[in-house]
């Protein structure tokens, strides 16, 4: 049975690969895609998502534009230095033009209506800032009953990538992330960059993607700026495809090994803003803490079979 899926995204090179993975999968019924600001402004993330779907010949999938800024505090900057000025290494315009108009509904309305009309539970995979997801949970509380899981790419248990403490997606809107991770309305899986970095792909993997066919070659062509960034970040020729790791788990539950722990987000101002705090103490010790309103447990992704995951991703994109 195919898994019903909605992707909330800010493409971004790794988002583009993740979106293509879902769009091409026979295991997925991709109900819709929603865009959010993040790696580049909303106008760019929206057209990038639509062009990736056009590349994958998925004119059946509606795309709706979402939040252009965080819930409370303005977004300090995008990540054009990592993904290129247009989010796709300057090559967005080389992709096919969208075959379907942008949906007239906003992202939150589209998600709420897709959830309401679905005859089965739906997985949501947010792979950008969590602004749209927090707004959905706040404005449409009844919709949560239809959510099977929210599989989030974000957070860092060790050091961050945007600041010393914070990973980009969570840092972009800490208040929204705190709302999504601690609200308890729907089961959450958090896929942090500690794990996604370990899942980085090397030059040989990228060469295989390039030679796999027209879609693989088109995706490979989007990577130069991103790959150059990660040559410095990793210290070798490869790149981290964070969002594809989370989408692989959304498509095939159990791909990642998880622990059930509460996770909270630092929303104060200062060097720790946007940090994700996972309480990995033993349950008995956590229970002894005098907290009148403890955060609910979520599934925190901590490990995977790296070889099998890389093969799964490559096979899905061929």
UniProtKB/TrEMBL annotation:
Keywords from the named record: Glycosidase, Hydrolase
Stretches assigned to the Inosine/uridine-preferring nucleoside hydrolase domain: 5-305
Location of region: Disordered: 74-99
Basic and acidic residues: bias regions: 75-84
GO molecular function, one term: hydrolase activity
Domain of life where this protein originates: Bacteria
Keyword hit for Chaperone: no
UniProt protein name: Nucleoside hydrolase
PANTHER family, sorted: INOSINE-URIDINE PREFERRING NUCLEOSIDE HYDROLASE, URIDINE NUCLEOSIDASE
């Amino acid at each position: 049975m195919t898994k019903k899926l909605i992707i909330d995204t800010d493409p971004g090179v790794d988002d583009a690969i993740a979106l293509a993975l879902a769009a091409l999968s026979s295991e997925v019924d991709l109900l819709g895609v929603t865009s959010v600001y993040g790696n580049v402004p909303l106008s760019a993330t929206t057209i990038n998502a639509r062009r990736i779907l056009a590349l994958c010949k998925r004119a059946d999938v509606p795309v709706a534009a979402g939040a252009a800024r965080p819930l409370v505090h303005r977004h300090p900057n995008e990540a054009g230095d990592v993904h290129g000025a247009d989010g796709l290494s300057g090559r967005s315009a080389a992709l096919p033009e969208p075959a379907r108009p942008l949906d007239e509904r906003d992202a939150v309305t589209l998600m709420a209506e897709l959830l309401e009309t679905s005859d089965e539970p739906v997985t949501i995979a947010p792979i950008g800032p969590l602004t749209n997801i927090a707004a959905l949970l706040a404005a449409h509380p009844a919709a949560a009953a239809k959510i099977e899981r929210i599989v989030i790419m974000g957070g860092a248990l060790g050091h961050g990538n945007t600041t010393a403490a914070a990973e980009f997606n969570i840092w972009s809107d800490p208040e929204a992330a705190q709302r999504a991770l601690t609200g308890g309305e729907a089961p959450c899986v958090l896929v942090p960059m500690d794990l996604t970095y370990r899942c980085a792909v090397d030059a040989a993997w990228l060469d295989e993607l390039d030679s796999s066919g027209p879609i693989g070659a088109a995706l490979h062509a989007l990577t130069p700026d991103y790959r150059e960034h990660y040559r410095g970040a990793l210290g070798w020729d490869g790149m981290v495809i964070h969002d594809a790791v989370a989408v692989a788990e959304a498509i095939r539950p159990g791909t990642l090994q998880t622990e059930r722990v509460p996770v909270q987000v630092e929303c104060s101002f200062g060097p720790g803003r946007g940090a994700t705090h996972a309480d990995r103490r033993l349950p008995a010790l956590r229970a002894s803490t005098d907290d009148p309103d403890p955060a609910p447990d979520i599934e925190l992704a901590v490990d995977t079979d790296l070889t099998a995951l890389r093969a799964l991703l490559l096979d899905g994109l061929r």
